[in-house]
UniProtKB/TrEMBL annotation:
A Pfam family reported for this protein in Swiss-Prot or TrEMBL: GreA_GreB
The organism of origin for this protein: Roseateles aquatilis
SUPFAM superfamilies found in the cross-reference section: FKBP-like (SSF54534)
GO biological process, one term: regulation of DNA-templated transcription elongation
Top-level taxon in the UniProt lineage: Bacteria
UniProt keyword Transferase present: no
Protein name as it appears in the record: Transcription elongation factor GreAB
Length: 160
């Protein structure tokens, strides 16, 4: 699995998200400033609501831009069996039902699922609970996380 290809897929998806978010922000801004949305009384809040939405969309766009900058600077390194799992690792976990899942640990802002052939790879940050749990682990180690009232157990099958 080519980590740089995965990185490019993350950047492509973030670029799509940014485009959609910017469109939504423009539409909300146009609604907020449209002459028909001028409040006629204190209960007429369509323009105000659209302004809040435009502000939220603008903040989301800025967060995506920051994530894109982080992902552009990101340089995933090869796995070092002396150090353990770190940012940039491609990890395969297996649960007690022998169900496998692949994770790609990257910078914040790239939480998404990518298709790679017939497989799916979950992109997570080291700040995610599962991301934190696998950091520093080695092939064969056990990983455990608590999700609500359920404890999930995994084994690190392989790391690249």
């Amino acid at each position: 699995m080519d980590k740089f290809l995965l990185q490019q897929q993350v950047l492509d998806r973030l670029a799509e998200d940014l485009l959609q978010t910017e469109r939504a922000a423009r539409a909300a801004h146009e609604t907020a400033t449209h002459e028909e949305c001028i409040a006629e009384n204190k209960y007429d809040t369509l323009g105000l609501e659209a302004a809040y939405l435009a502000t939220g969309q603008a903040r989301r766009a800025e967060a995506i831009r920051q994530a894109m900058a982080d992902w552009r600077q990101f340089r995933p390194l090869s796995y070092d069996a002396r150090v353990g799992i770190k940012l940039g690792a491609l990890v395969c976990l297996v649960d007690s039902d022998d169900k496998q899942q692949q994770l790609f640990l990257g910078p914040d802002g790239g939480s998404m699922k990518l298709a790679s052939g017939a497989q799916f790879i979950q992109v997570i940050s080291s700040e995610a609970p599962l991301g934190r749990a696998v950091l520093g682990k080695f092939e064969g180690d056990q990983v455990s996380i608590q999700v609500a009232s359920i404890r999930q157990q995994f084994e690190v099958l392989w790391v690249h």
